[in-house]
Amino acid sequence: MPRTVLVTGGNRGIGLAIAQRFAKQGDRVAVTHRGSDVPAGLYGVRCDITDPAQVDAAFDQIEAELGPVEVLVANAGITADTLLLRMSEEQFSSVLETNLAGSWRCAKRAAKKMLRARWGRMIFISSVAGLSGNPGQTNYAASKAGLVGLARSITRELGSRNITANVVAPGMIETDMTAELPQARRDQLLGEIPGGRFAQVDEVAAAVGFLASDEAGYITGAVLPVDGGLGMGH
Ligand code: NDP
Q1: In this structure, is residue 55 part of a structural domain?
Q2: Is residue 234 included in any domain, yes or no?
Q3: Domain count along the chain
Q4: Which of these, 2, 5, 17, 160, could form a disulfide with 201 (CB 3.0-4.6 Å)?
Q5: Where in this chain does the record put each Ketoreductase domain (predicted)?
Q6: Strands 163-170 and 43-46, sheet pairing
Q7: 15 CB less than 6 Å from ligand 1?
Q8: Residue 121: enclosing H or E segment and its boundaries?
Q9: pLDDT given for residue 98 in this prediction
Q10: For residue 34, which atom of ligand 1 is closest to its CA?
């Protein structure tokens, strides 16, 4: 059955691959963007997820055009890496505000209609860094670990209403975000990944697609790593 799907930050990178996967299977797919073009076949809605009013307006617009959001993929995220002693209040709070509070805000807004429909899927895009930590990413890792507590609390609150909330924790994926890594760090990471390579965005999209499916209805509060074994044991 076609669903209405919202992928935050679905205009590029991992989010775009996720959005295109849903679109290919016939779903009605909305993506947020902050002024960029949106590829054909996706419904673009302008929204900065740090602004509650914009989130509310984006959902109103999607509901009017595509119907209530049945699958939420909270994917939008940023980094502002630096070591703990050098990290500013702004670097910490901006990352938490986008990655964690922005996801919470979208989940809260989506939950209203999911509760009414007694069906919903929420998938939060975390990171291996949120599970095992990473030097230079105290802000980012804290925000991504927070998504696990968020998803699991939603599971406990809404699980009986046929709403699932899961976390996907990608490792190293080929995107703009990882293209910024210095070569030495890239080589070091490659040595630590049992799979011996970075992943393609479609490999994350496949995991998200599965968690959103009817077949995954009994999987909730789970953390699914897509990391080539990088974070094993966490
Ligand atoms: P990109 O940097 O390629 O894209 C980030 C996306 O988030 C963009 O669409 C961007 O929109 C959007 N975004 C950022 N801030 C906001 C905001 N305030 N409001 C709305 N949208 C916003 O990231 P990736 O595709 O690499 O990553 C996607 C997710 O996966 C992130 O949550 C990231 O933390 C996570 N992840 C990525 C990994 C990787 O290896 N790449 C590994 C593990 C996790 P805009 O185009 O307007 O800037």
Answers
A1: yes
A2: no
A3: 1
A4: 17
A5: 3-176
A6: unpaired
A7: yes
A8: strand 120-125
A9: 98
A10: 47
> Would you say the CB of residue 33 lies under 6 angstroms from ligand 1?
yes
Confidence of residue 125 (pLDDT cuts 50, 70, 90): very high
Does residue 231 fall inside a structural domain? no
pLDDT of residue 216: 98
Q: What CATH number corresponds to the domain at position 163? A: 3.40.50.720
* C-alpha of 99 from chain center: 9
In a domain? residue 233: no
In which order are the strands placed within the sheet that holds 28-33? Answer: 43-46, 28-33, 4-7, 71-74, 120-125, 163-170, 223-226
- Pocket perturbation via mutation, ligand 1, pick of 36, 55, 75 by most ligand atoms within 8 A of CB: 75
Q: In the prediction, which pLDDT does 177 show?
A: 78
Note the pLDDT of residue 178.
85
Q: Is 50 in the pocket of ligand 1 (CB under 6 A)?
A: yes
Amino acid code (one letter) for 110: A
Taking the centre of ligand 1 as the mean of its atom positions, its distance from the CA of residue 160, in whole angstroms, is: 31
- Locate the ligand 1 atom nearest the alpha carbon of residue 173 and give its number: 40
Q: How far is CA 107 from the centre of its chain?
A: 11
* Cα distance between the two ends of the chain: 35
Residue bearing tokens 């049945």: 70
pLDDT grade, residue 181 (50/70/90)?
confident
ipTM computed for the complex: 0.99
- pLDDT tens for residues 160-169? 999 999 999 9
The range of the structural domain enclosing residue 68 comes to 4-225
